[in-house]
Amino acid sequence: MEIEVSSSMHLMYVSEIQQEMYDSAQRRGTGIAKRSIEYLSKKISEGNAVVATENGEWMGFCYIETWSHGQFVANSGLIVSPKFRHGGIATLIKDRVFALSREKFPNAKIFGLTTGLAVMKINSDLGYKPVIYS
Ligand SMILES: CC(C)(COP(=O)(O)OP(=O)(O)OC[C@H]1O[C@@H](n2cnc3c(N)ncnc32)[C@H](O)[C@@H]1OP(=O)(O)O)[C@@H](O)C(=O)NCCC(=O)NCCS
């Protein structure tokens, strides 16, 4: 398994990532907006995402979003391909994307927005503290 900072060589996975994000959001009934191919492609080619693959097959993804000129950084859009779930991949991706956020934005406050219990658990295991939306 490889967990890498994204680059244009990962653009081949973008439609699969977008579709799986959309399908999981539908299944969970969260009303999360569909991310466009253009938006996800930009994250990937600018190196603002982490991609997990194995033998050329896509396994998981997460990207970095910034606000207020990089003062606030969120790790967003975490998704693991259904056939690779429950193997710890989401935890490894979150760990890598946190390190990437620190490298790129050393002074930022880093947070994650989540609607899911699994992600709450991953985040608290990694040492994140819960805060309210505002
Ligand atoms: C949520 C998701 C990213 C987890 O990926 P994963 O690779 O299976 O997660 P991990 O194997 O790293 O699991 C981490 C922990 O979460 C728990 N967990 C995983 N899926 C869970 C679920 N559906 N409900 C409750 N807990 C769950 C695991 O048991 C594990 O806990 P443990 O360390 O005590 O065993 C994946 O299920 C997914 O892509 N879901 C759809 C999209 C989604 O919900 N994204 C988050 C939007 S905020």
Describe the structure.
It is a single chain. The model has no long low-confidence stretch (mean pLDDT 94). The longest helix has 16 residues, at 89-104. The chain has helices at 14-28, 37-45, 89-104, 117-125, and strands at 2-5, 49-54, 57-67, 72-80, 109-111. Strand 4 (72-80), helix 3 and strand 5 (109-111) form a beta-alpha-beta unit. The chain is of the alpha+beta class. The protein has a single domain (2-125), classed as Gcn5-related N-acetyltransferase (GNAT) (Aminopeptidase, 3-Layer(aba) Sandwich). The protein has 4 helices and 5 strands. It starts with a strand and ends in a 9-residue tail after the last helix. 37% of the residues lie in helices and 25% in strands. Coenzyme A binds at residues 24, 78-80, 85-91, 114-119, 121-122.
Helical element count? 4
In terms of structural class, how would the helical and strand content be classed?
alpha+beta
Strands of the biggest beta sheet: in what spatial order? 1-2-3-4-5
CATH architecture designation = 3-Layer(aba) Sandwich
Distance separating the two termini? 38 Å
Helicity range:
25-40%
Radius of gyration: 14 Å
